[in-house]
Design brief:
This protein is an all-alpha fold and 378 residues long. Helices cover 73% and strands 0% of the residues. The chain contains 14 helices and no strands.
Length: 378
């Protein structure tokens, strides 16, 4: 999905500011809480239900599969990105999927619930992103992802020691509903600005396009390993609160990151910045694998939070420069495929902890960084 850019140097009108705030709340509900709250809840679920590491990876993969299916469906039917009925029904489905997680410990039920959550979060993300295309200060919308991650981490950190994992899922559903209430009246966006600029589009992909696609696939595969298991890894090596605290830091770092990376784009190319962001993210995966303790976990959380939304922005900016029709939709699809494969690929490594999985993620991200460097325009 295209990340909107600022198109007006003046102060945004009141209705534009309201649209941006509502869209940010939608992303907080769909991505920050609805999609990623499983990460800080994972250690508690393992401890209180005896869930095996292979099952946790499978449940995580179900969510990524749902997101992939949602992205593919919206790429095939772009009108869904501007359907208010689909947006609202997806919000309700997202809340319902979180409440379903409370019912027992049936992994099959959890798999179904997380697939639904993934599809719904994809629909809400695309609708919110489309709604702010061309709006002044539209980049603020994407700070909502970090806000949702940070507040869900605070929720688990504060309530985790005193309530069960079931109660935390109920609290997460209530938080999702709160953000969704703000986003509920978000108006749909207009058609993509690229639709009026087809003369600049290429008929077929170039070598640089395939290289960028491979890079973004590896980013999806590598980043999701850290995104799924970071809290569990930190919690395993320290007090119970340390894992959720690390997730809060991920969210706090993610809040300003889209704005900072967008500002950097004014001076440097998207491809050079993409390579840099991938190297930093690789370091965030390698650090907790090699160094124990809260300081290493804190640095890893900040680097991870500060890069994953920026990488999306930079990859999409680079794709737009290639002029391939529906390039952003195609990138979203390969990114989603990488996310599906990531947890499955490292499941055999989880028996003795998370170190091997994180080293694998770092290696994948380094290769992605090299591919990003190869896409630089000359």
């Amino acid at each position: 999905m295209n990340l909107p850019t600022r198109t007006d140097t003046g102060a945004p009108p009141r209705h534009a500011r309201a649209t941006v705030v509502r869209a940010a709340a939608g992303l907080a509900a769909a991505m920050g809480v609805g999609r990623f709250v499983y990460t800080p809840l994972l250690p508690l679920m393992q401890e209180q239900t005896g869930l095996a590491p292979s099952d946790t990876a499978l449940v995580a993969t179900a969510n990524y599969l749902g997101y992939f299916l949602g992205a593919i469906a919206l790429a095939a039917h772009p009108s869904g990105a501007r359907s208010r009925a689909l947006f609202r029904s997806s919000i309700l489905a997202l809340i319902a999927s979180e409440l379903v997680m409370i019912i027992g410990t049936d992994v099959r039920l959890w798999l179904a619930a997380r697939v639904v959550a993934g599809i719904a979060s994809a629909a809400v993300f695309v609708y919110c992103a489309t709604a702010v295309v061309g709006h002044p200060s539209a980049g603020v919308t994407f700070t909502g992802v970090g806000v949702g991650i940070a507040t869900s981490g605070i929720l688990v950190m504060v309530l985790g020691p005193v309530v069960s994992w079931n109660a935390l899922w109920a609290a997460a559903a209530a938080m999702t509903a709160g953000y969704a209430a703000i986003a509920w009246s978000l108006p749909p966006g207009s058609s993509s600005p690229l639709a009026h600029n087809r003369s600049r589009m290429r008929a077929s992909p170039s070598t640089r396009w395939w290289t960028l696609g491979a890079c973004y696939f590896l980013e999806g595969l590598g980043y999701i390993i850290l995104g799924t298991f970071l809290v569990a890894a930190v919690s395993a090596g320290g007090a119970q609160w340390t894992g959720p605290a690390a997730w809060v830091m991920v969210g706090l770092a993610a809040i300003p990151s889209p704005l900072l990376w967008a500002k950097a784009l004014r001076r440097w190319s998207a491809e050079s910045l993409l390579a840099l962001a991938l190297v930093l993210q690789a370091f965030s995966a390698l650090l907790p694998a090699l160094v124990a303790g809260p300081v290493a976990a804190l640095i890893a959380a900040i680097l991870f939070g500060g890069t994953f939304m920026g990488i999306t922005l930079l990859a999409m900016d680079s794709a737009l420069g290639l002029g391939i029709p529906r390039a952003a939709a195609a990138l979203t699809a390969v990114y989603g495929l990488g996310q599906i494969l990531g947890p499955l690929a490292v499941t055999p490594m989880l028996g003795d902890g998370f170190r091997a999985a994180f080293v694998c993620a770092a290696a994948v991200l380094v290769v992605a960084a090299l591919l990003a460097g190869a896409t630089r325009r000359r």
